[in-house]
């Protein structure tokens, strides 16, 4: 991140971030940063209470202590992927890959949009989140449509049928 290091909770000083971006030839201002935070539909970033620091609220590829508390999920959550990955996922489950958590959506449409980032032949998997939670798995809800969990074993997955996918 432009030579800036994060503290253990994932925060970086806003002014230091802006200076580092400008030192790398990127036009970047506080106003631009505030616009990104305010308009991000997924609420991907947040400022500290004093406004001096910023961090990603989820999607980390390094261990970060966000201070999220586990919450009870809805009965079903969803994950979009592309068909070529389906057999591997049904065999191994959903793994965080280069992130610290698996990202799930609370509706089929959002899962489909997320899956479409990886290709055109999108399929959606339903996650039996209620059963996972009853079995002791933890879920976190850092943003309105985003749910996180450590991983999803294959026993909790089911392919959403075509009627439900549209």
- In the sheet with the most strands, the strands line up as 1-3-2
The assigned CATH architecture of the largest domain is Alpha-Beta Barrel
Structural class: alpha+beta
- Total number of strands: 9
Which regions have little confidence, pLDDT < 50, spanning 5+ residues? none
Count of separate DSSP helical elements: 6
Radius of gyration: 18 Å
| CATH fold-type name of the largest domain | ADP-ribosylation fold
Please give the CATH class of the largest domain: Alpha Beta
State the order of secondary-structure elements, H for helix, E for strand: EHHEEEHEHEHEEEH
Cα-to-Cα separation, first versus last residue: 38 Å
Mean pLDDT metric:
85
Number of domains: 2
The biggest sheet, with number of strands, parallel, antiparallel or mixed sense and barrel status, is: 3 strands, antiparallel
Strand composition percent:
15-25%
Work out the helicity level: 25-40%
The global form is elongated
What can you tell me about this protein's structure?
This protein is α+β, with helices and mostly antiparallel strands and about 170 residues long. The protein has 2 domains: about 10-55, no CATH class; about 75-165, ADP-ribosylation fold (Alpha-Beta Barrel). It has helices spanning about 15-25, 30-40, 85-90, 110-115, 130-135, 160-165; strands spanning about 10-15, 45, 55, 75-80, 100-105, 120-130, 140-145, 145-150, 155-160. The protein has a 3-stranded antiparallel sheet with strand order 1-3-2. A hairpin with a 2-residue loop joins strand 7 and strand 8 (about 145-150). The longest helix is centred in the first third of the chain and has 10 residues, at about 15-25. About 20% of the residues are buried. The model has no long low-confidence stretch (mean pLDDT about 85).
């Amino acid at each position: 991140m432009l030579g800036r290091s994060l503290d253990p909770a994932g925060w970086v000083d806003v002014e230091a971030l802006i200076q580092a971006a400008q030192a790398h030839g990127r036009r970047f201002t506080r106003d631009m940063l505030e616009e990104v935070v305010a308009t991000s539909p997924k609420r991907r970033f947040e400022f500290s209470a004093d406004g001096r620091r910023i961090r990603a609220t989820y999607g980390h590829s390094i261990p970060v202590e966000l201070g999220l508390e586990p919450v009870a999920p809805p009965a079903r959550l969803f994950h979009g992927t592309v068909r070529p990955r389906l057999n591997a996922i049904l065999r191994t489950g959903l793994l965080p890959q280069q992130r610290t958590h698996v990202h799930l959506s609370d509706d089929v449409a959002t899962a489909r949009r997320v899956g479409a980032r990886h290709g055109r032949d999108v399929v959606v998997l339903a996650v039996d989140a209620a059963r996972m939670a009853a079995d002791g798995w933890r879920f976190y809800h850092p943003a309105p449509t985003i749910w996180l969990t450590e991983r999803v074993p294959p026993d909790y997955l089911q392919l959403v049928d075509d009627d439900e996918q549209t």
